[in-house]
Amino acid sequence: MKLDKPSQAALLRLSEVDLEIGHIKQEITKAIESKDLVDLRTKQSELAGELIAARTVVENLQSSQARADDDLHLVEERIAKDKDRLAHTSSPKDAQGLQSELESLQRRKSELEDAELELLAELENAQAVLAEVSARKEQNSKDLDSLQSQIQLTIDDLKTRGRKLTADREILVAKVSEEVLTKYSSLASRQVAVGQIENRSCTACRMGLTASVIDSIQDLVEDELAICPECQAFIVR
């Protein structure tokens, strides 16, 4: 397969550019699929669930505390009314009944006050848990935003390099014949398509070449493309 020396140099550079573009694509995928990013997103989702659960506990306790407070107010109102009735009754029987009811209401009030104190303690603990989860979620959100920004900067830089290489590639492609490009594309889809001989080895496959093979390659006319007998890659001299 014929190709003049300048075009051979372009072919070699085309292979290098394609390898760089492939590497950039891998780096972009790696950045998008960053384990740290996945972990932070997973943690954010978990913390969102924790936050909902903690908030629900607080809201339920607040509702219970409000009901207990209402019950206590009702009992206190009944106590006040019974005391007023007791103060204005002249009937010993009514007074005895009111006194008994007051004693019962006082016990009920004491029970409600104790229950409300317990609820307030539980509510205080639940609010502390809610505040702690909220703080962790906020910090995780900041870490996530920071990492996403860093990754986006990396991706933007990679894309800029990729666009430049793509532009360079178009120039290089124009310097290579259609026949060689067809064979090159077929090779490049599965391996390194172009190499050179360095330290008696093919740089495309890193396999050592015999002295007779190297001599036969060197003896080819200048515009003849050599082929590596090990990997079939083009050898540019």
Describe what you observe in this structure.
The protein folds into two domains: 1-21 and 177-237, no CATH class; 34-173, Helix Hairpins, CATH 1.10.287.1490. Helix content is 77%, strand content 4%. It has five helices and five strands. A hairpin with a 6-residue loop joins β4 and β5 (234-235). α1 packs antiparallel against α3 and α2 (35-88) packs antiparallel against α3 (92-173). The model has no long low-confidence stretch (mean pLDDT 94).
Describe, in short, the structure shown:
The chain is mainly alpha-helical.
Report the top-level CATH class of the largest domain.
Answer: Mainly Alpha
Structural class: mainly alpha
Give me the CATH fold name of the largest domain. Helix Hairpins
What's the order of the H and E elements?
HHHHEEEHEE
- The total of helices stands at 5
How many discrete domains? 2
Mean pLDDT comes to: 94
Taking the alpha carbons of the first and last residues, their distance comes to 14 Å
Counting DSSP E segments of at least 2 residues, the number of strands comes to: 5
Largest sheet: 3 strands, mixed
